Amino acid sequence: MLPYPPIAEHGLIGDLQTCALVSSEGVLDWFCSPRFDAPSIFAGLLDDRAGGYFAITADAPDVSDDGPAGSAEVVTQQLYMADTAVLMTRFLTPEGVGEVIDFMPVHDPHTVTDRHQVVRVMRGVRGTARFSLECRPRFDYGRAPHDLTFEDDATARFDGPGITAYLQALGPVDLEVDGTDVCATLALAEGERAAVLLTVCDADGAPPPAVNVHDMTQEFNDVRDFWHGWTAHCTYRGRWQQMVNRSAITIKLLTYAPTGAPIAAATMGLPEQEGGERNWDYRYTWVRDASLSVRAMRDLGFTDEANAFRGWLLQRLRDGGAPNGEPLQIMYRVDGDPYLTEEVLDHLEGWRGSRPVRSGNGAADQLQMDIYGEAVYALAQTGQVGNVIGYDDWLRCAALLDWLCDHWDRPDEGIWETRGGRKDFTYSRLMCWVALDRGIRQAVATARPADLPRWTAARDAILDQVMTLGWSEKRQAFVQEYDNTVLDASLLLMPLVGFIAPKDPRWLATLDAMDTELVSDSLVYRYDPEASPDGLQGSEGTFSLCSFLHVYALAKAGRVHQARYSFDKMLTYANHVGLFAEEVGLTGEQLGNFPQAFTHLALITAALALDSELDQVAGAA
Which of 337, 322, 105, 335 is nearest to 208 (CA)? Predict the structure, then answer.
């Protein structure tokens, strides 16, 4: 095993309350419990020495203070079982073929629990498969020591501060003590199996019951059937079905089932540039990202997920305002807690030395006016808003729009959460227009009380301002902010939200300008930080979210062949199991937190739009 594998060399498993990453070499190097945003138990992805890991590899590596050593003469393959979150890592060795099947059981996901499990099943497929196991937890981001005891010969217990992990072995797995960790080696002939079950719970929780082969088989069958049953609700039957399904499953895996709140990504601290400082904690719910996921999930037929997030969003309005004095703040914890204090974890080296590693997110109290547009956009994603929003909640929405009429014309930090000061960002004004426009439509459609003359006047004032100040005659394009001529890929959402027709001359000119300045083959930069300093050092890659939004805009503009070329090229940047991080680097590597929900929802949006446009072209031929 090599330290710090590429970010893309991982698959994701989860139980809809937390998740884990497993590398293509069989190393579980990211896992937090009991929630996505809880302190880590395994964080070898951020520090191969201090972070901890749970490895099952196909040989017996030398173990040293420097972490797991390299594996020779082993070829690995990793894949998902189709339409599930069951991950298989296959090892091809000179002696035979072995497999490790990883999954997290999904038990009553809508009920909050401190108890979470990871099942790892080892199989001999052909010849003899030799496995090496190392379980080295490091609690609280590697800051807290732990004690090791054995409940019996096949059950190890790791006690950390307020949390306990049990490792139960099934089959020919002889757990051995290695300091406060455990390890094992075993050989499986063709057809033989062994398994280990990791159970994490509060320190005062009951130990897990003894397990047997029947239990593990039933857990596997149950989780497979759960995912097959869930994906069966997908109504999309167009092109790129597997990639669309994988994106939907990824968004589902990143959604906290008890509240319906999706997080932005599974990880924290993975950099936008190797060795750089653009390293953030994405394990929270952004109003923007989550709101835009509502349309993607609804368009696929997953209405329960869409409605669950609407309920979470309405609860934020019922809470009566954010600590920063605004009606909403840009992000929350999955349970709606608005406090996300940012902390630098100096003891962690960071992925390949990318420091600082941050937990929490200091951007939570930024002013980003666009979130009101995304929020109302999400609440309006039904034919009749009254089907989801009751009268009292409608009054809260109406009060929000009344407030917005008086507060939309303010500089803010913008969608990209720059730390270079507030500016008059065009995208922020665009989404304020969306908030008022969708509010007006819903009030009329459902005969709800509303100050329509006031809302309409504000909406039209925003449109006039964007068309006047957000448009650059010099660039012949809509620009990032009113005081410069920098292009910004966030404006690719203009036609999607109905602000401008997708074939309007101004919009086509903007697309042409973006193609010249922001697009590199099929890849799209969000903006040029040299032309518009964002207060941070270092560079960044292209944003995969923007690349897929570009596909949508091209398709709707009638540039279908260019859109398909770009979309097919973008799919080649997915990792080996169909997952995307936030960015693609200069040499094609994935960068940033992984996997990113925003990218996957944009993939769905692009696929559905492009599929529809291709059908129309075929029908007209």
Answer: 105
